[in-house]
Design goal:
A 5-stranded mixed beta sheet has the order 1-3-8-5-6. A 4-stranded antiparallel beta sheet has the order 2-9-4-7, with no helix packed on it. It is built from 3 helices and 9 strands. 10% of the residues lie in helices and 52% in strands. The protein is globular, with a radius of gyration of 15 Å.
Length: 126
C-alpha cells in the first residue's frame, strides 16, 4: 500500500507479440502471473474480423482467480471485453484495424497476497 501512495509502480508488466504460423488462424500461448502483475499479448487484426480467446488455469498456489481483458487499438486501459465480469471464453467482433491487447491478470486474494498462477490462452482471429 505504501508503494502506491508514493507513486511507484504497483505491478510489473510483460508484453509479447503473438504471430500465427503460416496458414494458421490461431495460436496457444502460455505464461505465469504473480500477484498484481499482468501479462499483455499483442496481435494485429482488422475491423470486422472476430477474435476468439479462451483462458485456462494450468496451476496455481492460490485460488486461480485469473482473468483476461481485450483492449482495442489505442486503448489506455479501456476494454471491449472484461473477463472478470463476462467469463474466461469469448468471441468478440473487432471494431477497428490495429493492434489488440489480451491482458491476463489476477484479482482478489491471489493478487493481494502475491500468489502465482500459470495459464494457457487459446487465441484465434477469423
Amino acid at each position: 500500500m505504501v508503494l502506491s501512495s508514493l507513486g511507484l509502480p504497483a505491478s510489473a508488466q510483460s508484453r509479447s507479440e503473438v504471430h500465427f504460423e503460416a496458414g494458421n488462424y490461431g495460436a496457444m500461448v502460455s505464461g505465469t502471473v504473480v500477484g498484481n502483475e499482468y501479462v499483455d499479448y499483442l496481435l494485429g487484426a482488422k475491423a470486422g474480423q472476430e477474435m476468439f480467446v479462451e483462458l485456462t488455469v494450468v496451476d496455481s498456489n492460490g485460488d486461480g482467480t485469473i482473468y483476461f481483458n481485450i483492449l482495442p487499438p489505442g486503448s489506455t486501459g479501456e476494454a471491449i471485453y472484461v473477463g472478470s465480469m463476462d467469463g474466461n471464453s469469448t468471441t468478440v467482433p473487432l471494431p477497428a484495424d490495429g493492434e489488440y491487447t489480451i491482458r491476463v491478470y489476477q484479482m482478489g486474494n491471489d493478487a493481494d497476497t502475491g500468489k502465482t498462477t500459470g495459464f494457457n490462452v487459446d487465441l484465434s482471429i477469423q
